[in-house]
């Protein structure tokens, strides 16, 4: 029997503007507009307070200024947004190994089969929202449905801070009253053409003879009709090469000794290892990132035949990379990233002769982290 599919779509609310309001409490509750500040700049995101003035993304900045001169206009800090996006991505991976990012602030997660672990998959909706809020202070809108089309549509229905679940048996009825342009691929132009033959809602479209639609929808007729019936069998596509899982830390005061740096790296390896294991992932490439006091960024990578997942396996490679580095300069930032990820259950690797012992120790520690949170235990400040 085929497993019932469950797809989650997570979309951050007014992402860039929300990050600014989070980082600058004085912006909260105020219209914030992020985007190009030059003559021909456009709005990339604006806060919900700014939307009340009719400002929306892709609007020319000059027009936004006219609509709400008192708004806070910001050029955007894209490094910061990418950093937060990375944190959110790590949260996604603790929910599913199958994550398909659509952009910096939204992704599909395939939750099919998770009922074996959690009973009712729909409980993961509120859980991921609270996890994101706890870790980043931001709100997300979530759609949970049997396919991508319905999940994305659902996440948009109650924005911001929305959570909409569409169960397979109710899907067709639930979407029937919605306007046709809620279906992706149906733009304003097509929607107008359909309106001219009396079709306004998804339900009306679903009931229509394909022969009538073909002159308007052309080669997309079948796909759009399927969507109108709540059907979509596109898989969640995981691009392993692009995926990575990493942690980094910037120091308030530069670190000066190699030993201090290695202790921090061991801690980062434990954080990354924990994330890999809890998302049942392993990775072939370890990357060490070092920013020295002169602001120069050094990255070194090493790719292994067998995927890494245990803290000790990751540290083994990070230490080798660290050994090749000249630790003369004070260090501002350290980072550990594992990439070329693959799905990996926690029994599959056998890297050291010691693996079984490490594996058992890891499993015991992970069980504690699972129960009491990641901060509960560390393997000591000295690296192995
Ligand atoms: Mg968004």
Short note summarizing the structure:
40% of the residues lie in helices and 22% in strands. Strands 5-6-1-7-8 form a 5-stranded mixed beta sheet. The chain has a 4-stranded antiparallel beta sheet with strand order 9-12-10-11. Strands 3-2-4 form a 3-stranded mixed beta sheet, sandwiched between helices. A hairpin with a 2-residue loop joins strand 5 and strand 6.
What does this structure look like?
Helices cover 40% and strands 22% of the residues. The radius of gyration is 24 Å and the shape is globular. It is built from 15 helices and twelve strands. It has three domains: 1-173, Alpha-Beta Plaits (2-Layer Sandwich); 176-228, Orthogonal Bundle (DNA polymerase, domain 1); 244-376, Dna Ligase, domain 1, CATH 3.30.1490. Helix 7 links the parallel strand 7 (140-145) and strand 8 (163-165). The strands form three sheets. It has a five-stranded mixed sheet. It has a four-stranded antiparallel sheet with strand order 9-12-10-11. Helix 11 crosses helix 12 and helix 13 (258-278) runs antiparallel to helix 14. The protein starts with 6 loop residues before the first strand and ends in a 12-residue tail after the last helix. Residues 347-354 have low confidence and may be disordered. It has 384 residues and is α+β, with helices and mostly antiparallel strands. The chain has helices spanning 15-23, 48-51, 61-67, 78-95, 115-118, 124-136, 148-157, 171-175, 188-196, 202-206, 210-217, 221-228, 258-278, 311-323, 355-372; strands at residues 7-12, 32-35, 43-46, 72-74, 99-103, 106-110, 140-145, 163-165, 244-255, 281-292, 297-308, 331-343. Residues 11-12, 15, 105-106 line the site of magnesium ion (MG). Residues 11-12, 15, 105-106 line the site of magnesium ion.
């Amino acid at each position: 029997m085929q497993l019932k599919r469950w797809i989650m779509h997570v979309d951050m609310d007014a992402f860039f503007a929300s990050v600014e309001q989070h980082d600058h409490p004085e912006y909260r509750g105020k219209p914030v507009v992020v985007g190009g500040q030059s003559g021909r700049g456009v709005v990339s995101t604006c806060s919900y307070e700014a939307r009340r003035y009719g400002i929306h993304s892709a609007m020319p900045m000059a027009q936004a200024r006219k609509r709400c001169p008192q708004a806070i206009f910001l050029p955007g800090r894209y490094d910061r947004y990418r950093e937060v996006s990375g944190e959110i991505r790590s949260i996604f991976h603790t929910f599913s190994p199958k994550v398909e990012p659509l952009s910096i602030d939204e992704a599909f997660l395939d939750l099919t089969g998770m009922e074996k672990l959690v009973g009712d998959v729909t409980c993961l909706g509120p859980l991921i929202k609270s996890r994101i809020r706890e870790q980043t202070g931001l709100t997300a809108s979530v759609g949970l449905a049997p396919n991508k089309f319905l999940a994305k549509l659902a996440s948009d229905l109650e924005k911001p801070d929305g959570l909409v679940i569409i169960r397979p048996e109710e899907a067709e009825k639930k979407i029937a009253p919605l306007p046709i342009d809620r279906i992706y691929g149906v733009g304003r132009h097509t929607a107008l053409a359909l309106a001219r033959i009396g079709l306004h809602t998804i339900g009306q479209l679903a009931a229509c003879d394909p022969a009538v639609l073909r002159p308007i929808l052309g080669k997309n007729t079948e796909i759009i009709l399927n969507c109108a019936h709540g059907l979509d069998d596109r898989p969640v596509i995981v691009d392993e090469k692009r995926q990575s899982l990493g942690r980094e830390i910037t120091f308030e005061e530069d670190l000066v000794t190699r030993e201090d740096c290695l202790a921090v790296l061991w801690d980062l390896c434990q954080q990354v290892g924990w994330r890999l294991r809890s998302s049942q992932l392993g990775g072939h490439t370890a990357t060490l990132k070092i920013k020295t006091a002169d602001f120069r960024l050094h990255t070194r990578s090493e790719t292994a035949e067998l995927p890494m997942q245990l803290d000790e396996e990751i540290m083994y490679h990070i230490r080798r990379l660290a050994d090749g580095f000249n630790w003369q300069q004070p260090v501002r930032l350290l980072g550990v990233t594992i990439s070329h990820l693959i799905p990996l259950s926690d029994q599959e690797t056998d890297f050291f002769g010691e693996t079984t012992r490490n594996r058992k120790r890891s499993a015991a520690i992970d069980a504690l982290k699972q129960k009491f949170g990641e901060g509960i235990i560390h393997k000591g400040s000295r690296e192995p």
